Fold this sequence. Notes:
Residues 37-295 form the Aminotransferase class V domain. By secondary structure, this protein is an alpha/beta fold.
Amino acid sequence: MMLTVRRNILLTPGPATTTDSVKLAQVVPDICPREQEFGRLMESVCTDLTHIVADSGSYSAVVFGGSGTSAVESILSSVVHAGDLLLIVNNGAYGRRMCEMAEAYDLDSIVFHSPPHVALDLTALESTLRSSRRKITHLAVVHHETTTGLLNDIAAIGELCRRESVCLIVDAISSFAAIPIDMRQMGIQYLAASSNKNVQGIPGLSIVVAETELLENKRQHKPRNYYLNLYDQYRFFLETRQSRFTPPVQALYALRQAIDELKREGIEQRYLRYQKSWQTLIDGITRLGLPYIGSDRLHSKLVTSIFEPEAPGYSFQEMHDYLHSRGFTIYPGKLDQFRTFRIANIGDITSDDMQSFLNLLEAYLRQIGFIPGALKGVIASNTRSSEAK
Ligand SMILES: Cc1ncc(COP(=O)(O)O)c(C=O)c1O
């Protein structure tokens, strides 16, 4: 008898809804992760993860047990050395998190601030790179700012970095495996991802893809980290086909299955499926009169920050509970300046699932006395605005 698992629809920006086959791939005979069989599994997973964004001739994937944050932390704490200067683009919660990491590790860093819902001012960014009294050696930026759905123009930033000989570090945790990325073309040296978003695996693995030549550089600096040391994790796996420390064994079996399913669907088709769900979402909230943040041109079409309804009976927690008890999980907003909630359309879901969610949302809104009406206006802005600090 084929086991089935209750299907919850996660409209959260990760972990995302997985297929039953991914969930069930975790049920395997116990195995010691130092066995050759497991080493072969990890090797195949790393090669395929690299292929999602680069060619495995010049780039390599390194995996750690951890969440996405540990992939970013591993890069920043391993590759920015004494004497280097890191420029962090902070245009949302995840850019801010990188600033906090730089502070925790005492990295020499400066911050390029920009609002979370408007395009980065690339001219200002370029002039920051050029006018810095000390040479900026590294630039760290988020690809898809998951708080607002804003996509940063990584290809253009990569071009700036190429011209100024700056090493580019990209947090692609919420874009990896949905939005096509070509590390070589975009000029990215280090990229962070995780197993539980668009790859549609389960949580447990943080992923770094980097230029192999850089990973092979022999360190001349005292390491700032231990478990998250990128070079040591890379080298140990290269030499032994084993992870330095205990990996999340079952998450790797699930990831193997998830990657097989990604290959069958194809990244472009997956992104098209996601975009179809997004369009259903946008049509639905527009009809209900709930504006959202961002301009469609810069929008990832993966996660949307929606303004909370103006109604006396509204409470995010009650709306969450109403939907959750009916199989749909939604997410709070993460913006200081606006009252929003977030809906993501990633994972193993379809536009029909999104329509079912919208029907429930409308029922909830009517119940609290919110009158669905014409959209008053999308909070959109293409205006460029930023301040370099
Ligand atoms: C862009 C980005 N960076 C980092 C993270 C942190 O990932 P995790 O919660 O897996 O540590 C997230 C999570 O949503 C993200 O979207």
